[in-house]
């Protein structure tokens, strides 16, 4: 009888020890898996975001409220919204699409993914060869149609079919009833996207370029180098995004874009409030 109780006691001790070891191993394993898991967030972003998005990403990854950001790589591809849309339709493995308009994200919407507005852009006219400090939009239109302008002056806009800022520039020129005239006299130089327009204007390859206000804020352009086009003179440039691959990092990052911290970056970069 004594030996039986001892055997039972010994077996119980062994069982408890095994359970304790199993529990310790389980407790130690879970955090190791959580902290070593590495993920990549792939973002397709409109070209006009190339100046502001890197700052937002840096803030997001260093924000003390964001856990395990050291294990998240964020890769961004910048191009015209139309080109990125075509890539996504062809199966490009993006997690988030940040467009410069509302049209392209709307085409990708379904029951599980809905577009969201994350900022509102501003259109500006930029020149390093023709001082603009004495011009107002009305007087600039006169300059566009003057005899001296017809000779060799050039204006660049982004492709209106692919780039929302280009569509806004076209709409503005049409509202001033000079788009067809400028096009007919071959004064308009069409670029692939807003980034290319900026390069044309910044290098003096064209006399004027319709660019994003944010691009001018980024380079600290001088007042005489640009005019902010009145926002009432062209359709609002509401920029929408959509989550393509519904993952935790994608949801968290898009939440940050619309947070007070994210919106502060957009405001400082020359964008308008989305409210």
UniProtKB/TrEMBL annotation:
GO molecular function per UniProt: metal ion binding; molybdate ion binding
Keywords: Metal-binding, Molybdenum, Signal
Binding site for molybdate: 81, 194
InterPro entries: ModA (IPR005950), ModA/WtpA (IPR050682)
Key word Nucleotide-binding present: no
Keyword Membrane tagged: no
Single biological process term from Gene Ontology: molybdate ion transport
Signal sequence coordinates: 1-22
Lineage: superkingdom: Bacteria
Family in the record: Belongs to the bacterial solute-binding protein ModA family.
Protein name: Molybdate ABC transporter substrate-binding protein
Species assigned in the record: Psychrobacter pacificensis
